[in-house]
């Protein structure tokens, strides 16, 4: 039996696109018998990414072993770029100098494409360990540590951040997020002037998927790199809704739920400059 | 009562796009109780732009005061770029350091975007005065001063100029416009060779909107910067037809009529090099 | 009578697009009473292009004389770029300094565009002669010289080469083509790793146009510049199928059949580096 994992590739392609910018320094991908996970830390951006996709998040998933790889997601992205939406992907380890083999088979069977990728050499030990972010483990957040929780359509969040970036000048611009009981405000200052986008609490029984829910314990005022926030919002392709937890003296958590139990989570350290 | 003007933004967005390149050195925008106007001079290009949009040219327009601002239209363009077709815009003056506030509210009410723009400091006195182009005031042109008038579909005019620019080499290329009784000829010379586009007098009772009408008093042969002419043709988004007046020893006038009494007019000095 | 050839331009536009990169050093175009031909050699790429389009390959073709020109196809491409699909083109010689005139008339008759192109000065004598590639004349290939013949959908061939180029790094990458009785393999090595695309022999009575047919006398293993192969595959716009002949100690022949008796043929010298 081939020691490989065979899966339908479209959701994996979305995960790679959604995380490649935040995980720019390399990511640990694990394909196992129960599903897929991706972990990456980016110390220079002050960000951590964790993606968990159980087998049932895929249209089809069949894993007979565990294949673990540390790869450059921008390379993965270029490989997925030439794949079709409905390609079946076989992932397996292969001998050096390349460490991983990805085989794409399309349903029309007119060609088979194999890519043997080089793994990147980073501090593997660290990456292969469980993520060292116990303080922000999602289910263990104490009520008293949670300043505010925001739930909104992921596309609205993406449009707001993209709008601010289009007006803003450069990669160094910060966005200030201010949460009150009624509204969340995003503010940037650039050469052109000042941009303020306001998103108010909103609930329509007819369209609960469009609701904007603010649960505030304490008012929040944090700053993030506008470019980093924009990278995070790409995960809108993975989920219709985003939940943002603003925590006391801890990274904020941006969570996109996928299928029943899967998720993509981004842990961002607020910028010090206030 | 808020001292502001509230209006539907789509036509304003088109005006900004159509005039930003000709008015590259800044424009004076006035929102008043009766409508909108834009004035700009560009001495280095030898061009003047005047746009007048009465309130009825907008889907909705409500002004309770006059807001005047001198702004960089390329900044305005970036702000409008992120707006939606159906956004309602509130324009008002705001305190320094920004001088103007534009608030965009979309009908879905999922967010409100405010942009506080810096005004640009140019010779305000001059700009705020009525345009100093009495000699070319449209309604006062003497018959004897009018060499020729050309009326044609604005998209055909745009396609011709864009075609010449695609073949031509650089921004320094000139286009020669030659008007005879039967036809108008556009000619450029570049590295690739010579391009000549001919547009003949034409009238079809079934499709009067496609007619090309030449009223010639004297044959015309003038040159303009091909790049500048191409900037002017962007106003095709504002009107289906363009009227060009070639005047004796005065700038030529390119007029796009908007709604009942509105217009965008470009006054271009022909290039001296002949 | 005007000494010109009048023809419908859409297929000519496709020919120019499909050959301009391989024929980057200039091409000889001949419009005659019986049809059109294009010949070009590119010594630096080790490639020869020959296109023959009999009059019946055009929607309409009417030639009363022979017009021959040596032109830069990238210039031609820019001129055709602004033409419409259904333009009628009149080709005739014109006086120096430009040598050729192309007049585009669209069926809506709203404008006529004339381009007077400069011919390029290359070793005309050589180019105007019949192509000096008798050893690879298609119909005279001896069975014993033909290592293998491959027939496949031109779009599949194009997708494979484009996929390898998207993953590959730069213009200097080589693609190795390996033909066995069952399959053809395309392999490249780049910074990201190794890519191998396999296309198997395939025949479906229901869809003969999707068949992949391998006729192998001897196994083949040749290398070409990936960039050059990608330029060749643009001819997929001219024909649904491509036939590749791998010959002993001779250039390989990539043939795209057009209409009944027309064709575009690319003769490529395999790269020496093995």
Automatic annotation (TrEMBL), chains A, B, C:
GO terms for molecular function: DNA binding; DNA polymerase processivity factor activity. InterPro entries: DNA_clamp_sf (IPR046938), Pr_cel_nuc_antig (IPR000730), Pr_cel_nuc_antig_C (IPR022649), Pr_cel_nuc_antig_N (IPR022648). GO terms for biological process: leading strand elongation; mismatch repair; protein homotrimerization; regulation of DNA replication; translesion synthesis. CDD domains: PCNA (cd00577). It comes from the Eukaryota. It comes from Phaseolus angularis. Residues 141-270 form the Proliferating cell nuclear antigen PCNA C-terminal domain. Belongs to the PCNA family. One of its GO terms (cellular component) is PCNA complex. Pfam families: PCNA_C, PCNA_N. This protein is an auxiliary protein of DNA polymerase delta and is involved in the control of eukaryotic DNA replication by increasing the polymerase's processivity during elongation of the leading strand. Signal peptide: none annotated. SUPFAM superfamilies: DNA clamp. Its main location: nucleus. It is found in: Nucleus. Residues 1-125 form the Proliferating cell nuclear antigen PCNA N-terminal domain. This is DNA sliding clamp PCNA. NCBIfam families: pcna. Keywords: DNA replication, DNA-binding, Nucleus.
